Amino acid sequence: MKILVLNCGSSSLKYQLFDMEEETVLAKGLCERIGIEGSRLKHQPTGKEDVIFDDYLEDHDVAVKKVLEALTNAEHGVVKSMKEINAVGHRVVHGGEYFSSSVIIDDAVKEALEKCSELAPLHNPANLIGIEACEKIMPGVSQVGVFDTAFHQTMPERAYLYAIPYEYYDKYKIRRYGFHGTSHRFVSEEAAKMLDRPYEQTKIITCHLGNGGSICAVRNGKSIDTTMGFTPLEGLVMGTRAGDIDAAVITFLMQKENLTPQEMDNILNKKSGVLGISGVSSDFRDIEDASEHGNLRAEAALDVFAYKVAKNIGAYAAAMNGVDCIVFTAGLGENSGSTRRLICDYLGYLGVHIDSYSNSLRGKAMEISAPDSRVRVLVIPTNEELVIARDTKELLDK
């Protein structure tokens, strides 16, 4: 069975084609600047040279067509025809309270996604565009939706309710939803395998740390709490997002600076985080370099980030009444030994001890805790696309 996995943004389309017999990637690629001058498709067939197609991509319909042409191209392709593709799995950011698992997409599902667009205006409309483009170009091929929020639908009421008048939850469904669910699910399942423990008998804290970041408490295979909330803005300090903040700061700044809601939203989402503190960059590599060269604001940004991560790990250890292991994943979590060290230095009270040599390695799943560490610490590269492909195959098999 061959499954195409798509992740559609407003002007981009990422894809991977899986052969599920061996769970191997046949090809992957990126359409960027869709509908904008300078658009292109970068196609990467496994075992062959990368290919750049500079054709103008007018819209997502055209982008999907170009992806399928690249996949079936006599020279650069990896399948002989579209008929070899059995299904398409779509990453969908927000499923609201409608979806607690992946689903085959039909009109009712699309209607629910439309309703969720108000909750994720930058993402869900683009996800829907990708779904409808595939339906048009690949009639009769099953489309599956896999939701970033679904894994967190097991959170209890005490974790997802905000302390605002309950009528706003009733009217507008304002609550904590959580994101990065596909990643948290994948790495927690992999961690249980590395622990050689039944997934349903574990207490795992997963740290998805990249330009966007979140932490999840996974008890007995279910998400019971996570740091992101109604939107991906809540929680950790991130590349450009403020994370947790006193809500009164927002109204204070709006009055002092005469800001509109849109301008305030832009500040919190695009100009804050480690970029806002450091004034250097939203890229942690740039900030680490600046810190090493004596930039005190860059050093402060890294300290604030590590402190907030460690504080949330402590909170989730309390929420689960213990923890078996802590997992680092995503770009920063997988690749920055110095960031992992900064965070773990706060966790001595849990009995966390890091092995310096293991912590200096990168690029593979591994344990970085020392033999005497009471809590095991793992690095596991995330693979959200594989989860989407697996869920799609499982639904088709049923």
Automatic annotation (TrEMBL):
<keyword id="KW-0963">Cytoplasm</keyword>
<dbReference type="Pfam" id="PF00871">
    <property type="entry name" value="Acetate_kinase"/>
</dbReference>
<feature type="binding site">
    <location>
        <begin position="208"/>
        <end position="212"/>
    </location>
    <ligand>
        <name>ATP</name>
    </ligand>
</feature>
<feature type="binding site">
    <location>
        <position position="14"/>
    </location>
    <ligand>
        <name>ATP</name>
    </ligand>
</feature>
<feature type="site" description="Transition state stabilizer">
    <location>
        <position position="241"/>
    </location>
</feature>
<feature type="binding site">
    <location>
        <begin position="283"/>
        <end position="285"/>
    </location>
    <ligand>
        <name>ATP</name>
    </ligand>
</feature>
<dbReference type="GO" id="GO:0006085">
    <property type="term" value="P:acetyl-CoA biosynthetic process"/>
</dbReference>
<comment type="subunit">
    <text>Homodimer.</text>
</comment>
<keyword id="KW-0547">Nucleotide-binding</keyword>
<feature type="binding site">
    <location>
        <begin position="331"/>
        <end position="335"/>
    </location>
    <ligand>
        <name>ATP</name>
    </ligand>
</feature>
<feature type="binding site">
    <location>
        <position position="91"/>
    </location>
    <ligand>
        <name>substrate</name>
    </ligand>
</feature>
<feature type="site" description="Transition state stabilizer">
    <location>
        <position position="180"/>
    </location>
</feature>
<dbReference type="InterPro" id="IPR000890">
    <property type="entry name" value="Aliphatic_acid_kin_short-chain"/>
</dbReference>
<keyword id="KW-0479">Metal-binding</keyword>
<comment type="function">
    <text>Catalyzes the formation of acetyl phosphate from acetate and ATP. Can also catalyze the reverse reaction.</text>
</comment>
<comment type="similarity">
    <text>Belongs to the acetokinase family.</text>
</comment>
<dbReference type="GO" id="GO:0005524">
    <property type="term" value="F:ATP binding"/>
</dbReference>
<keyword id="KW-0808">Transferase</keyword>
<feature type="active site" description="Proton donor/acceptor">
    <location>
        <position position="148"/>
    </location>
</feature>
<dbReference type="GO" id="GO:0000287">
    <property type="term" value="F:magnesium ion binding"/>
</dbReference>
<comment type="pathway">
    <text>Metabolic intermediate biosynthesis; acetyl-CoA biosynthesis; acetyl-CoA from acetate: step 1/2.</text>
</comment>
<dbReference type="GO" id="GO:0008776">
    <property type="term" value="F:acetate kinase activity"/>
</dbReference>
<feature type="binding site">
    <location>
        <position position="7"/>
    </location>
    <ligand>
        <name>Mg(2+)</name>
    </ligand>
</feature>
<dbReference type="GO" id="GO:0006083">
    <property type="term" value="P:acetate metabolic process"/>
</dbReference>
<keyword id="KW-0460">Magnesium</keyword>
<feature type="binding site">
    <location>
        <position position="384"/>
    </location>
    <ligand>
        <name>Mg(2+)</name>
    </ligand>
</feature>
<dbReference type="InterPro" id="IPR043129">
    <property type="entry name" value="ATPase_NBD"/>
</dbReference>
<keyword id="KW-0418">Kinase</keyword>
<dbReference type="InterPro" id="IPR004372">
    <property type="entry name" value="Ac/propionate_kinase"/>
</dbReference>
<protein>
    <recommendedName>
        <fullName>Acetate kinase</fullName>
        <ecNumber>2.7.2.1</ecNumber>
    </recommendedName>
</protein>
<dbReference type="GO" id="GO:0005737">
    <property type="term" value="C:cytoplasm"/>
</dbReference>
<dbReference type="InterPro" id="IPR023865">
    <property type="entry name" value="Aliphatic_acid_kinase_CS"/>
</dbReference>
<keyword id="KW-0067">ATP-binding</keyword>
